[in-house]
Amino acid sequence: MPTSGPVEHAERARILDIAALDHALHDSLASIHDERDIRAATVAILSQAQKDGRSAIAAQLKAEPLDSTTATQGYTWLTDRLIALAWRVVTTRMHPNPNPTEGQRLSVLAVGGYGRGEMAPFSDVDLLFLTSYKITGWAESVIESMLYILWDLKLKIGHSARTVPDCLRLGREDMTIRTAMLEHRFIVGDETLAHELDERLWNELFKGTEPEFIEAKLAERDLRHDKQGQRYMVEPNVKEGKGGLRDLQSLFWIAKYVHRTDHIEDLVHRGVFRPDEYETFARAESFLWAVRCHLHLAARRPAEQLTFDMQVEIAERMGYVDKGGRRAVEWFMQDYFRHATAVGDLTRIFLTSLEAAQQKQPPLLMRLFKRAPRVRSDYDVVNNRLVIRDEAAFLADKMNLLRIFEEALRTGLLIHSDAMRLISGNLHLIDNDMRQSKEAKRIFLDLLLKHGNPERALRRMNELGVLSAFIPEFEPIVAMMQFNMYHHYTVDEHTIQCIWHLSEIEHGQLTEELPVASSILAEGVNRKVLYIALLLHDIGKGRDEDHSVLGSRIARRVATRLGLSKQEIATVEWLVRYHLLMSDMAQKRDIADPRTVRDFAKAVQTRERLDLLCVLTVCDIRGVGPDTWNNWKAVLIRALYRQTRRALEDGMEALNRENRGTEAKKALRAALSHWDSKALRAETARHYPPYWQGLHVTAHVVFAELLRDIHPDEIRIDIHPDEDRDATRACFVLADHPGIFSRLAGALALAGANVVDARTFTSKDGYATAIFWIQDGDDSPYDSARIPRLRDMISKTLSGDVVAREAIKPRDRLRKRERAFRVPTSITFDNEGSEIYTIIEVDTRDRPGLLYDLTRTLANANVYIASAVIATYGEQVVDTFYVKDMFGLKFHSVSKQRSLEAKLRAAIAEGAERARQ
């Protein structure tokens, strides 16, 4: 059996000088006889050699950051030598036995990944101590002494001591043990014993059990993928994730088990892979191992997940640079996901071919009752997969490169790996003539609109390169990562997720959860426009230009090529250009302000656009990732849609402030019908118009109860879950004074609450009525059990027992994985978006205590805050404040705006510095 990978002699000498190490051990141990002293001296020498060797390998990897083979084989060879030297010391100096009996034979084997000869810097070292018979006292002493030396070298050892029969028995019982022994490799000791194990494993355990092994590995892979998530998740696990190293290893295990080969390239000669497929696979393997090695070195531990902070460092280590308006980390991660996709595609080809070869035909009776779907004459069905009957005939008509996806959707069949290979190997046939043909356009639009599950076709087309070949403008966003904490998927996968959500809504699967979007689709919209707009809404990402502006130009070109009418093209172009408008208006503006709805209605102009944009917005938010859509966003989008629809249908006068105030007072009188008329008149008279226009009657009722018979120095608080909004509603009533909003924001920040929306009003008799909607650190409402503690912390802060500014400082820290993000600060002043207030929008890096810092700065500048709307997008936050100056006027003066902006930027910078400490 071979030793570890073929490390070149020059490379070996650079890693470890064996001769010098031999001399050092000989000289150091010559006069030592005590076992503990021998072990200590051995560890001291080997430890330094290990340190020097690891440094040499790391230096080589730094010089050649993509050369993973030299690194993985180097770490393996270094570990082999350390184990062999430890063996020699133990068997010659600590427990000498120059003539072992037959029962004392002992062999040390590497198993698992170490046995395969592939090691990252901090990989586990799995050892099998193999004995011929029951373990003897001498063998036990040798194993124990070796393990102590290896543990002292800080190696993470996994070990077992077994006989050959033990290995066979346990391998039959446990597939994990069988897999580990499949990769056994002799290191040192009795080599004859190792050969005996090898022969008996192949003849008595592996031979004839190939189907069982393949089935176990396929099930294990599926379970792992379910646990780790898809390869499109933006913080992938390099080892266990889909398209990661474990998939490569699964292929190696099965190839070795079935074909008894140690080299994947042998599969080319056996016809499993084409040469170009093997080259693709080899490049992906080398890249992923390089990533893993750099990840271990950067983390200084066996880290396997590419967290955001690690992604930045690994990109730098591997030589990526900023270019084309994108960060180095984004280019790196796009390469990562493309390699992961290649691993997935080629693994599927290999495993499907094996599955077909190993699968037994079901009994005739079962086949009679479970007939395969009827397929067109160009295809056959093999193992429930669509197979091309005549490859030459298939390729003679290039439309078949699209038709096969239509046939797969029509029949519900998967596409066979042989067909996939034929498709991916002939993408050059998808040329301009094909893209312009009516038949190709018809097939593609039918894939989106006709068969009911378009995302299935789009995902397979995307993975095989067909989607980018047919729509070349799509290619730049394939596997493109958006380096932020908001988006959970790559851009292409996000797009396909959006299409899936649209399909689910359209088929009535989300009627209760999404009543507005469901009703819009039920009433009827131009589905072609909606699907094409959703497919293209992010197609402009990754460039210097605003992706919505660039995307709209691209969308016009693509929609024209797909044969849409002029009106449809114009609508698609508009939807892509303004696909963020409704989300921004709902989440960044006060939709209780009639001006917000009026401006949005003017931008949308027609009911058709409103309907299309509403559905697109819902799908876009839901497609960002799990749990991104919640009741809070649903309430905002729903309210904006209904108010805008009313304005478009009944005229802008439907948004009149006075009408809304009158209706609000009427609703309050009905809700407080048990009050006496005098108290009710006092309540409806004590508030200014904005109060009646800005809150729902439920809040008006709460404030009426809090204000009733209140004393001037009293603070009253009402905190209740608002289930309809996935938030907790906190209402405060207290004597008004400057900076009240900041004090409340500080109290909530100190309690660990995240503010998602807030409004404050001053009554005519001098009381502040403030309402905040808050969530905990997991973006969830506070349950009833936690509300008393929340109320207590708020009360202490408002009463002055706790000073918020000082108490918040120790908590104002960013987690390590969040520090890699760059979010430029943008501050804008808008005097047109509200009739009464200046709107200050602060777009910056989110962190604990930010809202408090901003509101305290505004308060110190004598700015009155009427309301705040907070929109969080991962590490980015947009805090929007509706404000007046101390005289109740807007901030029209440019000099005042610049002065206020400077103060806000200073507060942000000071807090950011504090968060980095």
Structure description:
This protein is α+β, with helices and mostly antiparallel strands and 917 residues long. The chain has five domains: 9-207, Beta Polymerase, domain 2, CATH 3.30.460.10; 212-355, Nucleotidyltransferases  domain 2 (Four Helix Bundle (Hemerythrin (Met), subunit A)), CATH 1.20.120.330; 361-447, no CATH class; 489-651; 655-916, no CATH class. Helices cover 57% and strands 11% of the residues. The protein has 41 helices and 15 strands. Helix 6 (137-152) links the parallel strand 2 and strand 3. Helix 2 runs parallel beside helix 4, helix 11 packs parallel to helix 15 and helix 31 runs antiparallel to helix 32. It is globular, with a radius of gyration of 34 Å. Residues 1-5 and 361-369 have low confidence and may be disordered.
Shape: globular
- Percent helix range: 55-70%
| Fraction in beta strands | 5-15%
Q: Calculate the terminal CA-CA distance, rounded to whole Å.
A: 54 Å
| Total strand segments | 15
For the sheet with most strands, the description reads:
8 strands, antiparallel
What key phrases describe this protein's structure?
57% helix; eight-stranded antiparallel beta sheet; disordered N terminus; 917 residues; globular; Four Helix Bundle (Hemerythrin (Met), subunit A); alpha+beta; Beta Polymerase, domain 2; 5 domains; four-stranded mixed beta sheet; 11% strand
A few lines on this structure:
The protein has 917 residues and is an alpha+beta fold.
Helix-strand blueprint:
Elements: H1 9-15, H2 18-29, H3 35-63, H4 68-94, E1 106-110, H5 112-116, E2 125-131, H6 137-152, E3 157-163, H7 164-173, H8 175-182, E4 185-189, H9 191-206, H10 210-228, H11 245-259, H12 266-269, H13 275-299, H14 308-317, H15 328-358, H16 364-369, E5 379-382, E6 385-388, H17 391-396, H18 400-411, E7 414-415, H19 417-424, H20 432-436, H21 438-449, H22 454-464, H23 466-470, H24 491-506, H25 515-523, H26 527-536, H27 547-561, H28 566-577, H29 581-588, H30 594-604, H31 607-622, H32 631-650, H33 657-671, H34 677-685, H35 689-694, H36 697-707, E8 716-722, E9 727-735, H37 740-750, E10 754-762, E11 767-775, H38 787-798, H39 804-808, E12 826-830, E13 838-845, H40 850-860, E14 864-873, E15 876-884, H41 894-916
Parallel strand pairs: 2-3, 6-7
Antiparallel strand pairs: 1-2, 1-4, 5-6, 8-9, 9-11, 10-11, 10-14, 12-13, 13-15, 14-15
Helix pairs in contact: 2-3, 2-4, 3-4, 3-6, 4-6, 4-13, 7-8, 7-9, 10-11, 10-15, 11-15, 13-14, 13-15, 14-15, 15-19, 18-21, 18-22, 22-24, 24-26, 24-31, 25-31, 26-28, 26-31, 27-28, 29-32, 30-32, 31-32, 33-36, 37-38, 37-40, 40-41
